[in-house]
Design brief:
The protein is an alpha+beta fold and about 190 residues long. It is about 35% helix and about 20% strand. It has one domain: Peptide Methionine Sulfoxide Reductase, Chain A (2-Layer Sandwich), CATH 3.30.1060. A six-stranded mixed β-sheet has the order 7-6-1-3-2-8. Strands 4-5 form a two-stranded antiparallel sheet. Helix 1 (about 15-20) crosses helix 3, helix 1 packs parallel to helix 6 (about 155-170) and helix 3 crosses helix 4 (about 105-120). The two termini are about 25 Å apart.
Length: about 190
């Protein structure tokens, strides 16, 4: 099977990972950090907002089952509010920015065109602030951040902020929603 990669940041990585773990065609979704260096790719440092990193998710997917465009569609309509600058829900700081980290020039072009299309259609009351940041390395987050939504469905933050995203995925993309999430093998998540 051919796999492709997408790396996206849309606020706290728990919800982003959870949505894509419930998306058919996704082979894995790993929480992590993108935008900064390896030396400061850890939760305590990233939480300061001074590392350049954004909490992000690396999505490996089967392009025969789901397109990059469909992943972006889910990202912009279910995962987060792309009009909020450096914040999502209760979280604020550059580490919670909305960003696409394209793996190829083609992904960068698709993301730019999609954002322009959304802005042109005026689907949001405010302009989209999502940045496109090519050439960044993804670093997997600590094991305790992996599969967080699935392992902690009653955690108040998850109940309030992230479970509604799973419901929206099921409601808006029933053909793409899968009941059983694809979970991260914690041995594989470690860098």
């Amino acid at each position: 099977m051919t796999q492709e990669r997408a790396v996206l940041a849309g606020g706290c990585f728990w919800g982003v990972q959870g949505v894509f773990q419930h998306t058919a065609g996704v082979v894995s979704a790993v929480s992590g950090y993108s935008g900064g260096s390896k030396a400061n790719a850890d939760y305590e440092k990233v939480s300061t907002g001074s590392t350049g990193h954004a909490e992000s998710v690396e999505i490996k997917y089967d392009p025969q089952k789901i397109s990059y465009g469909k992943i972006l569609q889910i990202f912009f309509s279910v995962v987060h509010d792309p009009t909020q600058l450096n914040r999502q829900g209760p979280d604020s700081g550059t580490q919670y920015r909305s960003a696409v980290f394209p793996m190829t020039d083609e992904q960068a072009n698709v993301a730019k065109a999609y954002i322009a299309q959304l802005d042109g259609a005026h689907l949001f009351s405010q302009p989209i602030v999502t940045t496109i940041e090519p050439g960044r390395t993804f670093y997997a987050a600590e094991n305790y951040h992996q599969n967080f939504l699935t392992l902690n469905p009653h955690y108040p933050y998850i109940v309030i902020n992230d479970m509604p995203k799973i419901e929206n995925l099921k409601r808006l993309f029933p053909e793409t929603y899968r009941e059983q999430p694809v979970l991260v093998s914690l041995a594989k998540a470690s860098n």
